[in-house]
Amino acid sequence: MTEALVLKPKDYKSRVTPIWCPGCGHHAVLNALTKAMVALGKNKDETVMVSGIGCSSRLPAYIDSYGFHGVHGRGLAVAQGLKVARPDLTVVAMGGDGDGFSIGGNHFLHACRRNIDLTYIAMDNEVYGMTKGQASPTTPMDWDHSKLTPHGPGLRPFKPAAIALSAGAPWIARGYSGNPNQMAKLISEAMEFPGFSFIHVLSQCITYCPEQTDWKQVVHETEAEVVTDMAQAATLFLAEDGMQTGLLFRQQRPCWPPPAQAPQHNAIAVLAKSLRA
Amino acid sequence: MKRWLRSLTNICCVVAFHLGGFTIMAVLNNLQATGGELAIAITGAGGAGVISCGELILRGWARKGGRGMLRKSFGPQIRGGESAALLVLSSNECYTAATHYQLVLALDWINFDRFEDEIQVSSDTLVICDSNDTVPGSIVASGATVRDLSFEQLSKQAHPEGRANMFAVGMLAAELGLSPGDLCQLAEQKLAGKDQAYIEAAHASIVNGYDHPLHCDLKRPAVGDTDSWCVSGNQAVGFGALQAGVRFVAAYPITPASDALEWMAGGLEMAGGQLVQAEDELAAINMCLGAAFGGVPSFTATSGPGLALMTESIGLAVASETPVCILNVMRGGPSTGIPTKSEQSDLDIALHGLHGDAPHLVLAPTDIADCVSTTEWAVQLAQHLQTAAIILTDQFIAQSTGIVSPPVNSQWQAPQSTDVASEQQDYQRYQLTESGVSPRAAPGDPGRRFTADGLEHNEAGTPSARASDHSQQLDKRRRKLASVDFGNNWADIAGGGELGLISFGSTTAAVKRAAQQLADEGIAVTTVALRLLAPLQITALDTALSACNVAIVVEQNHSAQLFYYLRGCCDLAKTVHSVARAGPVPISAEEICASVREVMQA
C-alpha cells in the first residue's frame, strides 16, 4: 500500500503551529496546498516548498515535506536552482506580494521567462504584513492606512497576471482564500502542469486591510474557457478587475533547461588534457 | 607634422634601422634578459590581435619546454581601446609582472600612453613599431632603441589578407627559436571555425614573419620540461571546481570573472552538470543555494560589485548550513573602480561583509597552478563544513595565462564523522554535535524532512528566537570551523630567517622573489603565503613566525586590509610593518626589497 492512499490533508502538515493571525487568508492556502498534495498523492520526501520572507513565506515550515525558507525576495531563485539541479523533485515556490513583486520582482520576471517546471504561489494581500502594514506594489493608490505613505502610495498597482503573461509565463491562474476548494484544484493542476505555473492568490489580511473582507462580494469565478492565445490574454489581463478567479491562461511551451547530458566518460581527464600545453 | 616628429624620434633614439642592417648587432648586443627572464610587451589597439599574438608565442614556448606567463592588460573598450600582451618568458614558475621590458613590439601606438605605468622601457629596450606611426614621447624620452618596420606592408606581401599580428608571431618565433610549423598549428587551433582563407592568411603571415627575423640577439631563458599546463587562473579555478565535484553553476557576467564561468560552461556540459545564466548576482547565489540544498555541489564566480550583492545570501548559506563556493576575482575598487585591473582590496568584504555573526571560509590561491588545488580544497571544505567558502583571486592571477607544472590535488581528506547520525524518527538537521557538523540530508532522502532556514532555529530547524537556541547554533557554527583540522594547507611557508614576509594571492610571487634577492644580500627571510584566510590559523601562524623578530605584511590595496586583520586577530610578539599599495600596477620584488631595507635600517 502506498503512502498516498492513506494520507489525509492534515498528514501533510508539520507539527509547527502557524504564526498567522486568526482570519488570515494564508491558512486557507495552507489547507488548499495539503489537499492538492493529497489529490496528487505527493511523496513528502520528494516535494520541496521554497519561500522568501514575509508572513506567507512562513508556510514551508508548516508542511511536512522538505523546505527552504530563504531571504527576502529570493525564493524563486532558490527554487529554480533546486529544480535545475534536481529535476526529479516537485518544487513549489511561494511568497507574498512584497516578496515577489517588489524586492523579488526581477526574479519573478525571469522565472516566467525561463519556464522551469515548478509552481509559484503568490499570496497577495496588498500589504507588507510582517513589518506591520506598509503599502506594497499591489496596494490601491489611495490606501492611506500606512504611516509610511499617509496619503496613500499614489502609484498605480501592479497587475501580476499581466506582468507574468508578458514575461512569458505559460500557465496563469488566480485563486481566492475564501474559496479553498477551487484553490486546491488550481494548485494541483499547477503542480501537474509541465512548466512554470503561476497562481496569484487573493489572500486577505484582516489585520492591516480589514476592508478585504469585502472581497467575497466582488470575487467571481471565470466562466469563460481558459485563454490560450497571448494577445487575447493580454486584452483580458489589462481590462479585467483583477477579481476573477480560475485558470486564466495556458499555453504549452517547452520547459527549460533541456535535461543534462549524461556525463562524458573520463570528463575530468579530458578537460585536464585540454589544459595541457 | 607627423613626419617631422618621427624624424626627431629617430635622431633621439640613436638610429633608425632597416631590416637585417648590420649596424644593428653592435647596438643590440646589450639586449640581454636579466635573471634568466625575458620580458616582451606586445601592444596595440583593442582588436589588433596582440593578445592572440602573445598567446601563440606563449604556447609555442611551452611546447619547447619553456616556462612563462602572459598577462593581459586592457582598457575598458572592447574594440578600439588599448590592449597589451605582457609576456614573461623564464626558466622557473615564480611569475611576477616584469619591471623592465627587453622588447616592446607595438603593432600601433593607439592609446599607448595609458600603459606608461605598466610597461617600463629604458635605453636597454628595443622597440619595434610600425613605420606609419608616431612614436610616443615617453618612448623617445626613455632612450630606447626604436626600429620601425612596415608591419602592415610586410604582412600583406605574403598574402593579401595577411595580418600584422600573425607576422609578429612569426618574427618573434624566429627570435625565440620556435618552430614556425608549431605556431601555424597552434594558430589553426586558435582560429578553428574561421574560414579557410583566413587561416591560410594567418599561416602565410607567420611564415613570412619567420623569414624576417629581428637579429637582435635576445637572450633566451633555459628551457626544460615539456610536461606542463598552459592555463589561466580563471580556468584553473574552474577546473579545480569541476574536479572537486561541482555540478551546478549559476553565472552572472562580470569582469574579470566571466571567463571562469565561460570555461566552466563547456566543462559542466561534459561532466553532466548544469549552468544557469542568472538575471543578477542575487539570483546567482540563491540558485546555487537551491542546487546545494538539493545535494549538488554548487559554484558561482563574481567580482567585487557582485560579491557585495551576494553577501546577504552568503549569510543565508552560513545560517542554513548550505555549502556553496564563490570565486571572487578582485579588481580595482570601490564601486565600479577599475574593472579590468588587479587589486587585493576585497579582503575586508570577504572576511567581514556578512551581517550578524557568520563564520565562513575565505581562501586564496597563491598562484595560477594553486588555483586548481585551492579551489578543490574550498569545495571539499564547504561540503564537509556545510557553509560558504569564498575563494579570493585577483585579476593578475585570474586572467594571466601561465605555463605551469601539472597541478597537484588538494591533499586534504575530510575527517570521517564520529557523530552518530540521528535515528530517522527524530532526525534533526541542526543537531548539536561535538564537531559542530550535523548529519546532512537532501530532498529525496526518506524520512529526514526538514525546512532549511535563515531564521535562527532550534536543532530541528524550527524558527526560534530563544536565547538558548541562538547561542547554541552560533556556537555550533563557529565550532565546526574551529575544530576541523586544516592540515598544512593553510599556508605555504619557506625559509627560516628572522624577517617574516606575509602575503596572499598574487603578491606572493613578488614576495618569494624578494626573499631570493634579500638572501643574496645576506638577509634571511621566512615567507608565509596565507591560503586559508578565514578561519585564520592563529597558532600555526605564530609558530611559523617564531624565528622572526620582524614581520612585514605585503598586499596590494590602499588600506592595509591584511595587516589590520592580522593585527586584530594575532598577538604577534614582534614588530609588524605594512607594505600596502593599491593597484593597478603590480607590486614588484624590488619595491618589497626597498621597504625591507628601510625597515632593517630603522
Account of the protein in words:
The complex is a heterodimer of chains A (277) and B (602). Chain A has 277 residues and is of the alpha/beta class. Chain A has one domain: Rossmann fold, CATH 3.40.50. Chain A contains ten helices and ten strands. Chain A has helices at 3-6, 26-40, 75-85, 97-103, 105-114, 160-167, 180-192, 215-218, 230-239, 267-274; strands at residues 47-51, 66-69, 90-96, 119-124, 127-128, 134-135, 171-176, 197-202, 220-221, 244-250. Chain B starts with a helix and ends with a helix. Chain B is an alpha/beta fold. In chain B, the strands form three sheets. Chain B has an eight-stranded mixed sheet. In chain B, strands 8, 9, 10, 11, 12, 13, 14 and 20 form an eight-stranded mixed sheet that branches. In chain B, 55% of the residues are buried. Mean pLDDT of chain B is 90; it is low at 1-34. Chains A and B meet through strand 1, strand 2, helix 3, helix 5 and helix 10 of A and helix 3, strand 7, helix 9, helix 10 and helix 11 of B. Strand 2 (66-69) of chain A pairs parallel with strand 16 of chain B.
Structure keywords:
heterodimer; A: 277 residues; alpha/beta; Rossmann fold; eight-stranded mixed beta sheet; two-stranded antiparallel ribbon; 32% helix; globular; B: 602 residues; Pyruvate-ferredoxin Oxidoreductase, domain 3; 3 domains; 38% helix; disordered N terminus
